[in-house]
């Protein structure tokens, strides 16, 4: 058996990133809270790094007197006494102790569960019924719907308690839950939710017609085939209009009524990464949101003129530890500095490329812009720009905007931006005659008259993306 060896040559293209580049990329992707947590973690783990006590930038008042109060001190000044200051205001943002301080977080699910279980407590139920009903309440989603079948819930509860629970018991407990307030809670789909609300209303011809539509012609109702409903029910058109108007007034998400005050606002809370301000003369300034901590080397880790210790001694090992931690600290401080400079460079480039928006705050004035435009202006790599804009927000005098809003490809050959097309399309649909909505072809013709030449299929694409249904489903008879 013969063996042969051959020498071959091939060309490969590879991209290698060193650990410093990977870490810097992660820092760029971080939002303000994540960046704060990362600094806290690094300062806590590296004894060579510390936050300068003079972190806050010094300003001056109108008379030239140094103004050194921090933002936290200004907010604490709003309280009459120290006892009125909440505990989270008394903790220094950049000081860390060995004592664990638990996060103060409200239980967002407590409000809806407690409201329903309190209603159960006043009903005359057996302990078993109360337990099953409470289990059902715990399986409701945020809209108040039960999306799992009662047979599966019965099996799960049987396994959890070790006691057999039948589907019939689960169905009976579900009827108890559905009798609670608000009406419609515990429904398994939208039709059942609306029917449960109709069952709580005073009997009338309109309620009966609405119930008949839901039970027998639900698909036609969803598709707004009102002529089909009228022909099948033999009801008068006025009665059908009154029944449909009643159905449209019902609440499709009864669970939203149980949301505790302030929870929705807390869930929507966004910390902007940039602040853009426009003065009366039209000059625009860009800054990072929040004070960036000034990091420095801890005193005992700074360079000294002491002679090198003999190899293998304890002092040599200590010197090696000090050098390693010091190098890590210097590297991290450089990354923090580069992160701030990179973010500011990218945001300033966006402002320069979108000047009309930052002076008028009109989304229709946004021009087509892609990452390559930022690269051509700044010289930064596309991957760096992508990381610097991902998940970032900017605070302006007209509100908070995501950076992704400023990026869009040109639509068609006329260089139309996506926000410009969407704003004009929204205006046309919102001002159309509700009795005879515009079709996609008519919308395309209107847009062409406004100087936005687009095809009908383009209109259909962006109409669907904006959440507007076809013309037939937009018909309203007021």
Task: Quickly list its features.
single chain; 478 residues; 4 domains; four-stranded mixed β-sheet; two-stranded antiparallel ribbon; 7% strand
Helix-strand layout with pairing:
Layout: H1 19-29, H2 32-45, E1 49-51, E2 59-60, E3 66-67, H3 71-76, H4 110-121, H5 127-138, H6 150-161, H7 167-178, H8 190-199, H9 205-216, H10 218-222, H11 226-233, H12 237-249, H13 263-267, E4 274-278, E5 284-288, E6 295-297, H14 314-353, H15 355-360, H16 371-378, H17 382-389, E7 393-396, E8 399-402, E9 410-411, E10 416-417, H18 418-430, H19 440-449, H20 456-465
Parallel strand pairs: 4-7
Antiparallel strand pairs: 1-6, 2-3, 4-5, 7-8, 9-10
Helix pairs in contact: 1-14, 1-17, 4-5, 5-7, 6-7, 8-9, 9-12, 14-16, 14-17, 19-20
What strand line-up does the widest sheet have? 5-4-7-8
Main sheet properties: 4 strands, mixed
Strand content: 5-15%
Q: How many helical elements?
A: 20
Uncertain ranges: 56-68, 86-111, 261-267
- Helical content, roughly? 40-55%
Question: How many beta-strand segments?
Answer: 10
Q: Assign an overall shape.
A: extended
Distance between the termini: 91 Å
Domain module count:
4
Structural class: alpha+beta
Query: Rg, please?
Result: 32 Å
Q: Average pLDDT value? A: 78
- H/E series: HHEEEHHHHHHHHHHHEEEHHHHEEEEHHH
């Amino acid at each position: 058996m013969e063996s042969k060896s051959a020498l071959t040559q091939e060309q490969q293209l590879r991209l290698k990133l060193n650990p410093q580049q990977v870490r810097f990329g992660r820092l760029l992707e971080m939002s303000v809270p994540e960046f704060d947590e990362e600094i806290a973690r690094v300062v806590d783990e590296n004894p060579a790094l510390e936050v300068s006590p003079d972190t806050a930038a010094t300003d001056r008042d109108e008379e030239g007197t140094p103004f050194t109060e921090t933002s936290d001190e200004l907010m604490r000044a709003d309280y009459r006494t120290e006892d009125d200051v909440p505990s989270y205001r008394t903790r220094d943002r950049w000081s860390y102790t060995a004592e664990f301080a638990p996060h103060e977080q409200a239980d967002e699910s407590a409000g809806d569960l407690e409201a329903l279980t309190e209603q159960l407590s006043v009903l005359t139920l057996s302990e078993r019924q109360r337990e099953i009903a409470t289990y059902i309440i715990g399986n409701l989603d945020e809209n108040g719907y039960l999306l799992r079948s009662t047979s599966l819930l019965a099996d799960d509860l049987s396994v959890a308690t070790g006691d057999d629970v039948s589907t019939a018991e689960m169905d009976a407990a579900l009827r108890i839950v559905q009798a609670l307030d608000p009406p419609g809670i515990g429904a398994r789909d939208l039709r059942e939710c609306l029917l449960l609300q109709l069952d709580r209303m005073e009997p009338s011809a309109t309620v009966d017609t609405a119930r008949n539509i839901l039970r027998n012609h639900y698909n036609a109702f969803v598709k707004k085939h009102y002529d089909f409903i009228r022909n099948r029910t033999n009801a008068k058109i006025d009665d059908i209009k009154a029944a449909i108007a009643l159905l449209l007034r019902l609440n499709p998400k009864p669970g939203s009524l149980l949301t505790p005050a302030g929870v929705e606002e807390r869930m929507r809370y966004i910390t902007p990464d940039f602040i853009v301000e426009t003065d009366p003369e039209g000059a625009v300034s860009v800054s990072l949101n929040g004070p960036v901590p000034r990091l420095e080397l801890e005193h005992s880790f700074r360079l000294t003129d002491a002679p090198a210790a003999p190899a293998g001694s304890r002092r040599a090992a200590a010197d090696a530890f000090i050098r390693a931690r010091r190098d890590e600290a210097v590297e991290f401080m450089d990354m923090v500095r580069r992160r701030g400079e990179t973010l500011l460079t990218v945001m300033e480039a966006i402002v320069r490329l979108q000047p009309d928006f930052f002076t008028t705050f009109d989304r229709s004035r946004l021009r087509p812009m892609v990452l390559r435009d930022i690269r051509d202006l700044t010289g930064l790599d596309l991957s760096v720009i992508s990381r610097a804009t991902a998940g970032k927000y900017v605070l302006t005098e007209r509100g908070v905007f995501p950076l992704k809003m400023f990026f869009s490809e040109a639509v068609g050959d006329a260089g139309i931006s996506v926000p410009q097309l969407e704003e004009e399309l929204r205006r046309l649909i919102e001002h159309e005659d509700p009795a005879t909505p515009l079709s996609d072809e008519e919308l395309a013709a209107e847009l062409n008259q406004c100087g936005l030449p687009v095809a009908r299929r383009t209109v259909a694409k962006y109409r669907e993306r904006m959440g507007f249904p076809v013309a037939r489903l937009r018909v309203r008879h007021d």
